Amino acid sequence: MRLTRRHLLCAALAAAPLATLSTPAAAQDKWPSKQINIVVAYPAGGDTDLVGRAIAEKLSQRLKVPVIVDNKPGAAGTIGNSFVSRAAPDGYTLLLTPKTFTTSQQVLKVAPSSSYDVLNGFEPIVLTTNQPLILVAHPSTGFKSVGDMIKAAKSGKPVTYATPGSGSPMHIIGEWLAKEAGVKLTHVPYKGIAPSVTDVVAGHVNTAWLTPGVVSQYLAEGKLVPLAVADPKRSSLVPNVPTLVEAGYKDIINPSWMGLYAPKGTPANVIRTLNTQVNEILKMPDVLEKVTGVGSTPGGGSPDVLAKATAEDFHKMGKIIKDLGITAD
């Protein structure tokens, strides 16, 4: 049979729909082909930023494309979180965030332009790190345990506790403990971790809820006394410090964590690749050193692990925030 120009044109037209259908899959197979941005909704130099940079460096080496941290601080993380929720779901814009991601909108009055759907607006990739919250006291208080602190408060002595800010996880657990113990603990909010550490070390406040990385030096030097951690079990970072559960407060469990997310609708193959890569990165000795250096332990696992942590904190902490009437400045 002789092929005419008309035959060739008909064949091309018939194949066109198949070519069109195959384009998205082909495009996905080429991921990544350009720079990936990991948005951190907090300033450079903080815990989340440092973990993000450690992961970004390794991802860049393994994926053979630039991977950079893009700091978008403000409004307790809601500005950066919202930015990622509205980004194209193509695997080139990601979000690394602490668990405040789940509660910020429940303690703040967030403008519609900065709002986002915690449970349905993102694709969980991997829970990157776990970070216990630790209650410390100035030695002048004489507190050696949570029981000592509560006893002092019940006797009428004023007891203050510092946090990095109103509405923070540290504020939430401070008020939660006060309610469960039936005492008055005076909250002293600061604008960030650094000033709260400075004032508890100086003895301007009695106690503080912080993270181990920022107080490890002062604990080692005896300038601060550890009282308890808020994890369900003792942390490997401070194994000699009891939990609030051990202190008799069985329901007060508020572990902190960081997670990596993508915009909703990001292709499943991209999520799988990122999950696999980050799980392997978290096992690298130099990354582990950086993670523990900021008072964290590596996370990992499937996307479902992060999805579960997100949903649990959104609902559980949301109820506590409402019950205690906690708000942010």
TrEMBL record:
Annotated signal sequence range: 1-27
Keyword match Ligase: no
InterPro entries per record: BUG, Bug_dom1, TAT_signal
Gene3D superfamilies: Bordetella uptake gene, domain 1, Periplasmic binding protein-like II
Keyword terms, alphabetized: Signal
Family: Belongs to the UPF0065 (bug) family.
The protein, known as: Tripartite tricarboxylate transporter substrate binding protein
Taxonomic lineage of the native organism: Bacteria, Pseudomonadati, Pseudomonadota, Betaproteobacteria, Burkholderiales
